[in-house]
Amino acid sequence: MKFIGSLLTLWLICWPLAAKQTQQIKLAGPAAVISYPLMVMAEQQSLADDDISLTFTRWKNPDQLRAMIVGQQTDFSAMPSNLAAVFFNKGHKLKLINISIWDIMSVVSRDPAVKAFADLKNQEIIVPFKNDMPAILLEQLLSNQLGDKKSQIKQRTSHNLLDSSQLLLAGQVDHALLIEPVTSMVMFRNSKSDKKPLYRAINISEQWQSSFPNAAKLPQAGIVANTSVSKDSSLLLKLQKKYHQKALWCKQHANQCASIVKKYLPKAPTPALVEAIKHTELKAINASNAKQDIESFYQVLLNTNAKLIGGKLPTDDFYL
Hints:
This protein has 320 residues and is of the alpha/beta class. The chain has helices spanning 2-19, 36-44, 62-70, 81-89, 133-146, 161-169, 182-191, 204-211, 233-252, 254-264, 270-278, 291-304, and strands at residues 23-29, 52-58, 76-80, 95-103, 105-109, 124-128, 154-158, 175-179, 199-203, 221-225, 281-286.
């Protein structure tokens, strides 16, 4: 009996340790700078001390992202800020953790004279992702700056950033709206060819600031918590804190960050991945702290096409 009692005591002591299981958390994002910290977190297993295992999956277009969110294939994902509002307002109660991208998009051109959208009159520009963030921002800016004359700029839609970049590199178009690191990748590859140089001609965030001074900051994308985890406030805070740390680390250690990102984007030239960090305002601001800037941006969209944010401003419980 004494032996059995000793075994029972030992089992009771060890049982909590044996029963404690590692939480499996799925991260997702596009092949863009917003995903760099997520990739670093997955590679370094940054929440291992909290018994949380992280994996990262890349999504290639907004339609795939929508399927992953609705199908609970990811717990946290990088996402355009307007799409997060659409999900929330349509009843999928995800939570916006942060806004981390404030400047990442530009018009790349072969014409050094292009400095503003007015310089693109009677020309064609290729735009990725119809009805999503790049096209939305371009439409807002063209309407604001050119009014009825915006139709003089021909917009050609592509399915994704890769298609846009390939058409630009092939010389089939002279102007493209791109996002980092694709912008840096395109310029790097073009520099290795005998084609005319490419230029970062128009910065979208700068244009937005001048066009909409009452909504000067451009909260383009952030991290959301899917409904699978959105009520776990402890987990959300841990992830936001670690993402913030890794975003700062990537800005301060661009080469080391790029070497990790390279494992997830093996076809991307490392110098371009480094350059992309330099040209992106990667700054993770807690969603509730960025609420005023987010709502100012949403209001601009609401005034022109309410469907772009799901018909209304999200309620307070949208924000972490």
